[in-house]
């Protein structure tokens, strides 16, 4: 694309003049060249230089003292000692002392070295020539010739059979690596479609580990439940609760706008999945007057009095509701699993 | 043997150096590099902030691996921190508690590691912006720009995997988000999620898997990139700002030995010292207050570390679009932010190539430009930062709401609108400001510096005395290059044949006008103008 | 069982047993004592209701109606109970200054005696949660760790890990719990003020409320420990990021400016 070359006439005049441009008396903007070096006070006054030397040595000494302080702190302060230090609060004495002494020990090495460089080492500015990255045409020609010779000697161009089979082998060999990744995890199958909830499982209060009775759940209250039979000590507790976590509120039946929600509730007690349908944060910032529930991660807002539909934020669909009833012992129970997958949407969700 | 005849033995140091030279060729290496020149400017040290905080992270990270157990087996906490005693937690969390409360200095090293990580990423961001605004990414440094960008990008993910390792309630929420985001990928989402987590979320594998990525895979790649980045800095030699004696063909500054050995070496200790002090006085990621991860628990104010705040903002302000068709779900509400995130970063990454295509400039540049002298680029950079910062605000919308007594929902709407409007406003305003500064430079060159001395002329008029600039200063203010805007060649060539001009070429010329057109730069003062005005002054 | 035996030999075990014994004694006393006094103070109670009614008609009736039946400006107070009054007036939220997304906490204008009278009057309008006694809310001897777990399940989603507060929809917010009186924490859980849901004893027994109060006091009071140093508001990564940028990178840039600056030149002599 020759059009991308800059035409000569659009280049600014006089740019790229050689280094150390000659001072043209006629051009007030010409490069006057590097200004002459002006001495620092340390360069001309030996007393000032000695002061700098002492300052540098003082900083290195401070660093040594700080290291001693670090070791002393390590030995002296118990690891659980808490002290009040204004304005930081009640902090660990050990952490505070170790950090400050280590910080000082390191900082003063640096400060000493920099002060040394700034005051005592030469500050004469030096110019170094630059050379273009691009090789000269001779070098390039030599490389191209070498490459052509090498390529010809290899026979790559002539012996197509070798070349093609080699490409084939190289293309196939990474497949082994990919195959080995297969056991990283199981196939999704229908795993995301179901939870532990099933017909007849009682709703266990997460606080008390006792089954809930309808009369326990007051209007305006918020309760969390898990399915009967699940225990914190179970091996798969984390994975199961990640899907089964349940949020229970009670709304005056006349305030429930969604017909199905009312049907699936028990006297206004509604049970919704606690897992946000956006990306799966536990969602339970329930405002009891508005019946809004907000996700603390990305602020999706659902209306629990209207089938938990999305009223704000990035969630794409409502919270799944669990159909509940009361068993003959008077406890709340699930009447089945959720009828749709809980948590974030995915391709196969449909 | 020659040693027999030698009258005096060389000093020990020299003999060691000789030994090494015979095997490594160090004298040849030192000849080129020992007195390598580095220019002095504070902004040229930002890269060193990054390099040193990276080294600090590696050093402290190695220490942490000696105590950290990357396992998700559930254990009961029996350590000294009372508010967690008897709680179930993963071994990863438990060992992090052990580091924080029982290993002497463990908390300090943990905090240095985390603070250094935040500063590393912040340093890279600012360093990248310095390079951008001074045009230091231009030929021959485009590849090095890409290396630097990759370091920033990988740094974000190294940070994220490290942040997730303690398996606390906050980071676990972040991992849950990541899993939800992976699920949104069409067709493959559920498979990727199952393979990454070894089954359903959270499973028992991700800490160990993130661990190997965090301590081996990602830092290994980054270390390689850092070395390549530094080699290229040495090969290209550092850019410098224009000034007397500072041209495109030289580099003016202090030699590596001794000045920069002391300054850069000392700066490592300064950076380490400052970060150690910060770790002494300010708490970071207090996992004991956050608690162990449980997928059914959460805290408000759930945010990632700052470098992921931009992505967090995108996710938060996106409307919840979801398409259900033929039994499949397209989760646009998550996918679109997931695509915009790398796209915005890529925009800045490929900019050097776009600029060189638009300007058609194929020469080497070693003079760092002043941002005002490249108004269009500067405006683009500021617009990009504006978009980035607005999304950072979006990522913390709940905290802005509580701390400034605003409505969460209004902030979200503000971010939604200003993610688009903000960059446009910033672009226009920045370009204006740059042109204004160019005009001021021109005035300064032609009329001299305002001295602040007011003089009363015989006829009563008050004027401010202007002092002429030194030649060095005049040169500095006029050293930048100015191009004429590209023009399309005439529609018919000299033989009367209609010329075919590609659509891309038309676009290029149009964009080129945006860089070098009359609205995009103030013509430099010419020598003639200068002389005329200066002689005019003589008549006063 | 194994858990218990493992912890029996813990150095703090004796302390825990002692605290539990103390709490049990205190709890028993608290359970019996108030009932006795209540019977004796039958007349004092009705007097308090009288006084409370006077205070009510001056300070509250304009919004809540003369009989506490509620108006368009304020909800009905029938059945809210003395606990709600003690919380709302005791934290200064009521009487409200101006309408808004949420009524904020402010310095209270009534004495505790006046609040008690108001509470007695409102409680007489209809049965509701009763103002707790110290034995009910005092965190002494409670299980802090259990409280932490309960806090993370029930409270942290709005009030943050350690009770620093957080945002809700349209300008509403969950307030910070720093240095809130244990009594008010208890009453808030019991009554669910404003948009906060309630956590009644049926789903969160009294003992668990005490555990939660003990946890909040342990992690968010002016005595709370922050071993790592300045806790930066306890807000998590946003304040950490700001601090890292401003003080971390800021300090390093200041240092870099010093490193790169030219040393002062000697004056021409």
UniProtKB/TrEMBL annotation, chain A:
It is a multi-pass membrane protein. This is Cytochrome bc1 complex Rieske iron-sulfur subunit. Its main location: membrane. The chain crosses the membrane at residues 55-76, 96-117, 161-181. The cytochrome bc1 complex is composed of a cytochrome b (QcrB), the Rieske iron-sulfur protein (QcrA) and a diheme cytochrome c (QcrC) subunit. Residues 238-333 form the Rieske domain. Iron-sulfur subunit of the cytochrome bc1 complex, an essential component of the respiratory electron transport chain required for ATP synthesis. The bc1 complex catalyzes the oxidation of menaquinol and the reduction of cytochrome c in the respiratory chain. The bc1 complex operates through a Q-cycle mechanism that couples electron transfer to generation of the proton gradient that drives ATP synthesis. It is found in: Cell membrane. GO terms for molecular function: 2 iron, 2 sulfur cluster binding; metal ion binding; monooxygenase activity; oxidoreductase activity, acting on paired donors, with incorporation or reduction of molecular oxygen. Belongs to the Rieske iron-sulfur protein family. Keywords: 2Fe-2S, Cell membrane, Disulfide bond, Electron transport, Iron, Iron-sulfur, Membrane, Metal-binding, Oxidoreductase, Respiratory chain, Transmembrane, Transmembrane helix, Transport. It comes from Streptomyces nymphaeiformis.
Automatic annotation (TrEMBL), chain B:
This is Cytochrome bc1 complex cytochrome b subunit. Keywords: Cell membrane, Electron transport, Heme, Iron, Membrane, Metal-binding, Respiratory chain, Translocase, Transmembrane, Transmembrane helix, Transport. It is found in: Cell membrane. The chain crosses the membrane at residues 44-68, 112-133, 145-165, 177-198, 210-235, 264-285, 330-354, 374-393, 413-430. It is an enzyme of class 7 (translocase). PANTHER family: CYTOCHROME B. SUPFAM superfamilies: Transmembrane di-heme cytochromes (SSF81342). Its cofactor is heme. GO terms for biological process: respiratory electron transport chain. It is a multi-pass membrane protein. Residues 16-242 form the Cytochrome b/b6 N-terminal region profile domain. Its EC number is 7.1.1.8. It catalyses: a quinol + 2 Fe(III)-[cytochrome c](out) = a quinone + 2 Fe(II)-[cytochrome c](out) + 2 H(+)(out). GO terms for cellular component: plasma membrane. PROSITE patterns: CYTB_NTER. One of its GO terms (molecular function) is quinol-cytochrome-c reductase activity. The lineage of its organism: Bacteria, Bacillati, Actinomycetota, Actinomycetes, Kitasatosporales.
TrEMBL record, chain C:
Keywords: Cell membrane, Electron transport, Heme, Iron, Membrane, Metal-binding, Repeat, Respiratory chain, Signal, Translocase, Transmembrane, Transmembrane helix, Transport. GO terms for molecular function: heme binding; iron ion binding; quinol-cytochrome-c reductase activity. One of its GO terms (cellular component) is plasma membrane. InterPro entries: bc1_cytC-su (IPR009152), Cyt_c-like_dom (IPR009056), Cyt_c-like_dom_sf (IPR036909), Cytochrome_c_Oxidase_Subunit (IPR050597). It is an enzyme of class 7 (translocase). Its EC number is 7.1.1.8. It comes from the Bacteria. Residues 47-126, 142-220 form the Cytochrome c domain. Heme c 1 binds at residues 60, 63-64. It is a multi-pass membrane protein. SUPFAM superfamilies: Cytochrome c. The keyword Cytoplasm does not apply. Its main location: membrane. Heme c 2 binds at residues 155, 158-159. The chain crosses the membrane at residues 242-261. Binds 2 heme c groups covalently per subunit. Residues 1-30 form the signal peptide. It is found in: Cell membrane. The cytochrome bc1 complex is composed of a cytochrome b (QcrB), the Rieske iron-sulfur protein (QcrA) and a diheme cytochrome c (QcrC) subunit. This is Cytochrome bc1 complex cytochrome c subunit.
């Amino acid at each position: 694309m020759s059009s991308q070359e800059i035409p000569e006439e659009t280049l600014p005049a006089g740019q790229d003049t050689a280094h150390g441009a000659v001072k043209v008396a006629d051009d007030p903007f010409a490069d006057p060249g590097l200004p002459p070096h002006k001495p620092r006070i340390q360069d001309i006054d030996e007393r000032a230089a000695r002061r700098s030397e002492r300052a540098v040595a003082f900083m290195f000494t401070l660093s040594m003292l700080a290291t001693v302080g670090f070791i002393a702190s390590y030995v002296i302060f118990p690891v659980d000692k808490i002290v009040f230090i204004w304005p930081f609060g009640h902090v660990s004495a050990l952490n505070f002392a170790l950090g400050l002494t280590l910080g000082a020990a390191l900082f003063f090495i640096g400060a000493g070295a920099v002060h040394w460089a700034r005051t005592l080492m030469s500050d004469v500015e030096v110019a170094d020539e630059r050379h273009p990255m691009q090789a000269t045409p001779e070098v390039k020609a030599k490389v191209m010739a070498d490459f052509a010779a090498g390529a010809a000697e290899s026979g790559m161009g002539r012996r197509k059979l070798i070349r093609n089979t080699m490409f084939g082998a190289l293309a196939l060999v990474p497949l082994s690596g990919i195959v080995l990744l297969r056991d990283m995890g199981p196939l999704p199958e229908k795993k995301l479609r179901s939870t532990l909830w099933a017909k007849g499982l009682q709703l266990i209060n997460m606080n008390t580990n006792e089954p809930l009775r309808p009369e326990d759940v007051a209007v305006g209250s918020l309760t969390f439940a898990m399915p009967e039979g699940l225990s914190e000590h179970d091996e798969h507790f984390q994975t199961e609760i990640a899907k089964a976590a349940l949020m229970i509120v009670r709304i005056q039946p006349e305030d429930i706008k969604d017909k199905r929600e009312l049907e699936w509730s028990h006297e206004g007690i509604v049970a919704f999945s606690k897992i946000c349908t956006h990306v799966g944060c536990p969602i339970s910032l329930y405002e009891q007057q508005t019946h809004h529930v907000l996700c603390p991660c990305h602020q999706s807002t659902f209306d629990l009095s209207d089938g938990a539909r999305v009223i704000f934020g990035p969630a794409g669909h409502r919270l799944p509701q669990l159909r509940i009833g009361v068993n003959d012992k008077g406890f709340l129970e699930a009447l089945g699993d959720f009828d749709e997958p809980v948590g974030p949407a995915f391709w196969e969700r449909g | 043997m020659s040693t027999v005849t030698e009258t005096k033995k060389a000093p020990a140091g020299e003999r060691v150096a000789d030994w090494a030279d015979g095997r490594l060729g160090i004298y040849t290496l030192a000849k080129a590099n020992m007195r390598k020149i580095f220019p002095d400017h504070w902004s040229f040290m930002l890269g060193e902030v990054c390099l040193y905080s990276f080294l600090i992270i590696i050093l402290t990270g190695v220490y942490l691996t000696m105590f950290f157990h990357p396992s998700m087996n559930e254990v009961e906490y029996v350590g000294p921190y009372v508010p967690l005693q008897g709680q179930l937690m993963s071994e990863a969390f438990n060992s992090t508690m052990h580091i924080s409360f029982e290993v002497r200095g463990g908390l300090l090293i943990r905090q240095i590691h985390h603070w250094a990580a935040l500063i590393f990423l912040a340093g890279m961001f600012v360093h990248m912006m310095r390079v951008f605004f001074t045009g230091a990414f231009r030929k021959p440094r485009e590849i090095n720009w890409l290396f630097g960008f990759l370091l920033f990008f990988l740094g974000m993910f190294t940070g994220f995997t490290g942040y997730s390792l303690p398996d606390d309630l906050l980071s676990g929420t972040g991992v849950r988000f990541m899993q939800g985001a992976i699920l949104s990928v069409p067709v493959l989402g559920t498979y990727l999620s199952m393979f990454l987590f070894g089954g359903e979320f959270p499973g028992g594998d991700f800490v160990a898997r993130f661990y190997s990525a965090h301590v081996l895979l990602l830092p290994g790649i980054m270390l390689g990139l850092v070395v390549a980045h530094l080699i290229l800095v040495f090969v290209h030699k550092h850019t410098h700002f224009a000034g007397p004696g500072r041209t495109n063909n030289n580099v003016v500054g202090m030699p590596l030995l001794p000045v920069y050995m002391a300054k850069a070496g000392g700066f490592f200790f300064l950076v380490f010292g400052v970060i150690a002090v910060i770790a002494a006085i300010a708490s970071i990621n207090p996992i004991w207050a956050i608690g162990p991860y449980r997928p059914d628990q959460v805290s408000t104010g759930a945010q990632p570390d700052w470098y992921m705040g931009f992505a967090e903002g995108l996710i938060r302000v996106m409307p919840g679009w979801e398409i259900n068709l033929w039994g499949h779900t397209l989760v646009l509400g998550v996918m679109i932010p997931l695509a915009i995130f790398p796209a915005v970063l890529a925009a800045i990454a490929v900019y050097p190539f776009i600029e060189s295509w638009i300007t058609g400039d194929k020469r080497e540049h070693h003079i760092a430009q002043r941002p005002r002298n490249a108004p269009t680029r500067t405006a683009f950079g500021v617009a990009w930062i504006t978009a980035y910062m607005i999304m950072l605000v979006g990522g913390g919308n709940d905290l802005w709401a509580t701390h400034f007594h605003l409505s969460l929902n209004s902030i979200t709407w503000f971010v939604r609108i200003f993610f688009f409007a903000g960059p446009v406003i910033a672009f226009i305003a920045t370009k204006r400001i740059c042109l204004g500064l160019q005009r001021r430079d021109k005035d300064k060159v032609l009329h001299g510096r305002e001295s602040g001395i007011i003089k009363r002329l015989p006829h009563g008029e008050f004027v401010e005395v202007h002092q002429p600039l030194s030649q060095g200063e005049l040169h500095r203010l006029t050293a930048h290059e100015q191009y004429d805007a590209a023009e399309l060649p005439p529609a018919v060539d000299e033989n009367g044949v209609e010329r075919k001009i590609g659509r891309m070429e038309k676009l290029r010329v149009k964009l080129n006008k945006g860089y070098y057109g009359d609205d995009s730069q103030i013509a430099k003062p010419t020598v003639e103008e200068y002389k005329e005005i200066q002689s005019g002054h003589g008549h006063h | 069982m194994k858990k218990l035996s493992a912890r029996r030999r813990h150095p703090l075990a004796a302390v825990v047993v002692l605290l539990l014994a103390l709490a049990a004694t205190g709890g028993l006393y608290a359970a019996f004592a108030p009932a006795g006094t209540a019977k004796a103070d039958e007349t004092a109670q009705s007097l308090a209701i009288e006084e409370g009614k006077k205070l009510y008609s001056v300070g509250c009736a304009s919004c809540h109606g003369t009989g506490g039946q509620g108006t368009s400006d304020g909800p009905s107070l029938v059945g809210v109970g003395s606990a709600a009054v003690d919380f709302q007036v005791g934290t200064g939220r009521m009487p409200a200054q101006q309408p808004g997304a949420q009524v904020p906490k402010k310095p209270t204008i009534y004495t505790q005696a006046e609040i008690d009278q108001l509470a007695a009057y409102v409680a007489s309008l209809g049965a509701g949660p009763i103002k707790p006694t110290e034995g009910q809310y005092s965190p002494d001897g409670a299980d802090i760790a259990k409280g932490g777990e309960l806090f993370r399940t029930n409270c942290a989603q709005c009030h943050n890990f350690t009770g620093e507060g957080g945002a809700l929809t349209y300008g509403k917010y969950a307030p910070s719990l720093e240095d809130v009186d244990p009594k008010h924490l208890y009453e808030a859980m019991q009554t669910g003020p404003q948009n906060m849901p309630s956590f009644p004893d049926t789903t969160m027994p009294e003992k668990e409320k005490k555990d939660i109060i003990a946890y909040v006091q342990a992690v968010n009071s002016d005595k709370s420990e922050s071993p790592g140093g300045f806790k930066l508001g306890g807000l998590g990564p946003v304040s950490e990021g700001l601090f890292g940028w401003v003080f971390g990178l800021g300090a390093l840039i200041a240092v870099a400016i010093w490193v790169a600056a030219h040393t002062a030149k000697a004056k021409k002599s």
